[in-house]
Design goal:
By secondary structure, the chain is α+β, with helices and mostly antiparallel strands. The chain is 14% helix and 35% strand. It is globular and about 75 Å long.
Length: 248
């Protein structure tokens, strides 16, 4: 065998080995430490915007089989489990369709009761305090305008966060009293009138096995005003003020 052929074989072997090691490290990093996630919809406005890219800490609530690619590790429940807190923004697998990731805010813990009455949130029969902080208007794709009110909300004296409401009499603004079962959680979007969450039967209560991780920090954000090859528009595309922002 010629020297050049041996050299080519060695180069190919080194390339394959390098790719294998790089892929293994990336899988371990995404499974154990942090996984990137992008925001595809407006259900978490104003906390998260469409076009935000963020890191989710996989270790925050321990690990389940959904923490790993294709569920290859057959964990029955969770390992190194740590209880999430009300108000956390969490990525989870949609119950019944575990290929789909959702991101919402945790409202109800196991044993809690959750209800909305005329747009006001009650947790354990206590009215959640909200304070109006802003108001504005958006134009929908059909040209119609929607008035929005921003509030600062705090669940049972936990950490505060911002929500938006278009009204207090939309479809999910009056609900039954939900009783959160053991080992399950109740989630809602911060964009209260434009979020498919635990109030909807197709989502419902989320088992603790489905929790993926806690949203921590925005590492990139864009407004979708330009395509990736239109580099001359990037200065208007990137939301520099959101990069590095800690998620509350």
């Amino acid at each position: 065998m010629s020297k050049s052929k041996n050299k080519n074989n060695n180069s190919l072997y080194e390339l394959i080995k390098t790719l294998f090691y790089a892929g293994t490290i990336a899988i371990i990093f995404r499974s154990i430490l942090f996984e990137p996630f992008n925001i595809p919809s407006g259900s978490m406005i104003p906390s998260l915007l469409v076009g935000d890219y963020l890191f989710v800490s996989k270790y925050s609530y321990g690990y389940s089989r959904y923490s790993f690619p294709f569920g290859i590790i057959p964990i029955k429940d969770r390992l190194i489990y740590d209880n999430p807190e009300r108000g956390d923004i969490i990525v989870f697998r949609k119950p019944g369709d575990e290929k789909v990731d959702y991101i919402k805010r945790l409202i109800g813990l196991p044993g809690d009761t959750v209800q909305l009455v005329d747009g006001r949130l009650y947790v354990n029969d206590q009215l959640v305090i909200r304070k109006k902080t802003n108001r504005g208007q958006i134009t929908k794709t059909d040209g119609s305008k929607v008035n929005l009110v921003e509030y600062e909300e705090s669940i049972l004296n936990a950490k505060s966060y911002k929500i938006i409401e278009s009204s207090d009499n939309d479809f999910f603004d009056n609900t039954i009293k939900f009783i959160v079962p053991e080992d399950k959680f109740f989630f809602m979007g911060d964009n209260r009138d434009n979020s498919k969450d635990s109030r909807a039967s197709e989502v419902g209560f989320v088992p603790k096995m489905n929790l993926i991780g806690k949203a921590q920090i925005i590492f990139f954000s864009h407004n979708g005003s330009a395509r990736f090859y239109e580099f001359w528009k990037w200065h208007n595309l990137i939301r520099f003020s959101r990069i590095g922002k800690k998620i509350e």
